[in-house]
Specification:
There is one protein chain. The termini are far apart. The protein is elongated. The chain has twelve helices and nine strands. A seven-stranded mixed beta sheet has the order 4-3-2-5-6-9-7. It has a two-stranded antiparallel ribbon with strand order 1-8. Helices cover 36% and strands 18% of the residues. It folds into two domains: 202 residues, Vaccinia Virus protein VP39 (Rossmann fold, 3-Layer(aba) Sandwich); 55 residues, rRNA adenine dimethylase, C-terminal domain (Helicase, Ruva Protein, domain 3), CATH 1.10.8. The chain is α/β, with parallel strands linked by helices.
Length: 273
C-alpha cells in the first residue's frame, strides 16, 4: 500500500530538482498532503479508474492520487525538472504511475490513457479553461472531472440562469456534465501563492446530454446570445432568426441570454438549419 507520508518532504524534492515555479507554465504547487488528500476524496470511489493528472509538477497531488484506490495514475507534465522528480516518485509507486512528458493542450488523452478515465488536477491557471473546453468536446471519453480552477472560472461553470457569472461556459458544461462546487482553497495554500482564491469543482459526465442538441449549433446560439448579453435576444440573435426563431422555440423575445435555461438554448439550436 502506497504511503505518501513516508516519502521525503516535497520542499526537499523541489530543492533537489531545482523546481522553482514558472509563471509561463502557470505553476502553483500544493505541498500540504492533507489538502491534496481532501481534493482526491472529492472524486469518490476510483476503483478501476485510470486517473489523468495535468501539470503534476513535483508530485504533490500525485502522491495523494497514488494513496487512493485508483487503478493507475497518468501524470502529464512538460517541465523537464518536474518530470525528473516524478520519475523518482514512479520508482516508489508499485507500477501504478506513468509519466506522460507532453503538452496537455496537444495530448489526445483517449489515445494515451485506457478507459475508464477521469481527470483529477490542479490545472495551470493560464490554460485551465481551454483544457476543459477541449475535454468537453469529447466528454463521452471521460466519466468525471475533479479540477482546481480560479474561483471565478469555477463560478462560471456552475452558474445558473439569472446569475451574472452565467454564460457560454455554464451552458456547455451543464449540458454535458453535472458540475458541483466542492470547496475553496486560499492563495496561501499554494507555492508560490496566486493572487486569487481557487476552487475545487467536481463534474460528473452525463450518460446523455441534458437535452437534444448538436454541439456546433448550440455553440452558434450561445456565442451570439452571450456576445451581446445586455441586448434582448431578438436583437442578439437577429443574424440567425431573431424574433421568429424565438417565437417558434417558445422563448420570449424580450428575454436576455442570462435568463435562459440550458434546455431553452438547446431548443433554439434545434431550429437552426
Amino acid at each position: 500500500m502506497f504511503d505518501a507520508s513516508k516519502l521525503p518532504p516535497l520542499r526537499e524534492v523541489v530543492g533537489r530538482f531545482d523546481i522553482a515555479a514558472q509563471k509561463s507554465l502557470g505553476q502553483h504547487f500544493l505541498f500540504d498532503l492533507n489538502l491534496t488528500r481532501r481534493v482526491v476524496s472529492m472524486a469518490g470511489d476510483l476503483s478501476g479508474i485510470n486517473v489523468v493528472e495535468i501539470g503534476a509538477g513535483p508530485g504533490g497531488l500525485t502522491r495523494a492520487l497514488l494513496e487512493s484506490n485508483a487503478h493507475h495514475v497518468f501524470a502529464v507534465e512538460r517541465d523537464p525538472r518536474a518530470v525528473a522528480a516524478l520519475r523518482e516518485l514512479a520508482q516508489q509507486a508499485e507500477n501504478r504511475l506513468t509519466i506522460l512528458d507532453a503538452d496537455a493542450l496537444k495530448l489526445d488523452i483517449a489515445d494515451a490513457v485506457p478507459g475508464p478515465r477521469q481527470v483529477i488536477a490542479n490545472l495551470p491557471y493560464n490554460i485551465g479553461t481551454q483544457l476543459l473546453i477541449n475535454w468537453l468536446m469529447k466528454a463521452d471519453q471521460f466519466t468525471a472531472f475533479t479540477l482546481m480552477f480560479q474561483k471565478e472560472v469555477a463560478e462560471r461553470i456552475v452558474a445558473t440562469p439569472g446569475n451574472k457569472a452565467y454564460g457560454r461556459l455554464s451552458v456547455i458544461s451543464q449540458w454535458l456534465t453535472e458540475p458541483r462546487m466542492m470547496f475553496d482553497i486560499p492563495p496561501s495554500a499554494f507555492v508560490p501563492p496566486p493572487s486569487v482564491t481557487s476552487s475545487v469543482i467536481r463534474m460528473t459526465v452525463r450518460p446523455t446530454p441534458l437535452a437534444d442538441a448538436q454541439r456546433e449549433k448550440l455553440e452558434t446560439v450561445t456565442r451570439a446570445a452571450f456576445g451581446q448579453r445586455r441586448k434582448m435576444l431578438r436583437r442578439s440573435l437577429s443574424a440567425i432568426g431573431g424574433a421568429e426563431l424565438l417565437k417558434t422555440a417558445g422563448v420570449p423575445e424580450e428575454a436576455r441570454a442570462e435568463e435562459l435555461t440550458v434546455e431553452q438554448f438547446c431548443a433554439i439550436s434545434r431550429l437552426l438549419d
